[in-house]
Specification:
Blueprint lengths: L29 H27 L3 E6 L3 E2 L12 H14 L5 E7 L2 E6 L1 H9 L4 E7 L4 H15 L4 H13 L6 H8 L5 H17 L11 H13 L3 H12 L4 H13 L12 E4 L5 E4 L5 E4 L5 H16 L1
Parallel strand pairs: 2-4, 3-5
Antiparallel strand pairs: 1-5, 3-4, 6-7, 7-8
Helix pairs in contact: 2-3, 5-6, 5-7, 6-7, 7-8, 8-10
Length: about 325
């Protein structure tokens, strides 16, 4: 009977010997690296698109040097600066920093036009600051920019009727709106019809006296409406008022309003009646007319070529002596 061969036990030091088998090393498949690169590219593209969308939709906030912000990008609706309010704003900026960004439009070539926030820009300049926190807006048209400026100032610091009217007049002059009615509807769409009507009346004052008034913001509603009515009814009043304002150079709002009120209280001087021409009838068919300016004229059927020639000859001899 054949004897079975006994198998020896496994060597415990086999794997630790110098001849131990090395576990096969695996390397990632090429497709995995490609997929990772694609994911990173997609994320970068998505981030770039998000930044582009934020810029185009007016949601991007940036720090800008004051030197690249043009405060004259729009005709400003604020005509005066209350020094007390300015000092309060500067104190707030010093204590808490700029909490509310200004709004700007990208003009290209590293330049930006100020849409709203003129007081903040002015305060930062006075404080010696170099930069401003800005919200980069992308107004589709100038109309959007004007509307943004008006809305911001209406909310923060109420505009006077004169300032409201002036921005409407300037927007029309720059071609943003076709006429004053469209400007009033577009810029002050939330206002009542009565309020828009009053602003429209002040537009007459702006068109006639802007640049000659030194304290226009102080003109109250009652005086402004009286001025508008008077200017519309008298074509020569604007010239009279501008001459008086330029000559007087009122030192303050009270003096200027007193001048305007006095002009409105002065009754219009009636025009002197021009004397009528003197007419003399010479015979049945000849009229002699002497005008107050010194001229004379003859008319009638008797004024035939023969009489004209005789008169001319007589005048020549008379004048030459």
């Amino acid at each position: 009977m054949a004897r079975r061969k006994r198998l020896s036990s496994a060597r415990p030091d086999f794997l630790s010997s110098g001849e131990e088998a090395q576990a096969p090393r695996t390397s990632p498949a090429p497709i995995a690296g490609i997929a990772g690169d694609a994911a990173q590219s997609a994320a970068a593209a998505e981030m770039a698109q998000a930044l582009t969308d934020a810029r185009e939709s007016g949601r991007m906030m940036v720090d800008l040097p004051l030197s690249v912000i043009d405060p004259a990008y729009l005709v400003r609706d604020r005509l005066s600066v209350d020094e007390e309010e300015m000092q309060a704003l500067m104190t707030s900026l010093e204590a808490r920093g700029q909490q509310v960004p200004v709004e700007v439009a990208d003009l290209g070539d590293g330049c930006y036009g100020l849409i709203s926030g003129w007081r903040r820009i002015e305060a930062l300049r006075r404080m010696g600051r170099d930069t401003a926190l800005a919200l980069l807006r992308a107004p589709r048209e100038a109309e959007d920019a004007y509307l943004a400026m008006v809305e911001e100032n209406e909310i923060r610091v109420g505009l006077s009727h004169y300032e409201r009217a002036r921005i409407a007049v300037k927007a029309v002059e720059q071609g943003v709106y076709p006429d004053l009615s469209a400007a009033l509807r577009g810029l002050y769409y939330a206002a009542s019809r009565a309020k828009r009507s009053k602003i429209g009346s002040f537009a007459t004052v702006v068109s006639s006296l802007d640049g000659h008034l030194r304290h226009p913001v102080a003109i109250g509603e009652r005086l402004g409406l009286r001025l508008a009515q008077a200017l519309e009814g008298d074509a020569g009043l604007a010239k009279t008022l501008t001459s008086r304002l330029d000559a007087a150079e009122p030192a303050d709002a009270e003096a200027e309003q007193a001048l305007l009120s006095a002009a409105l209280a002065t009754p219009a001087q009636p025009k002197a009646k021009r004397p009528a021409p003197q007419r003399t009838r010479i015979g049945p068919d000849l009229n002699f007319v002497e005008d107050p300016d010194g001229s004379i004229s003859l008319s009638g059927r008797a004024l035939d070529p023969e009489l004209k020639a005789a008169l001319k000859e007589w005048l020549v001899k008379r004048v030459k002596g």
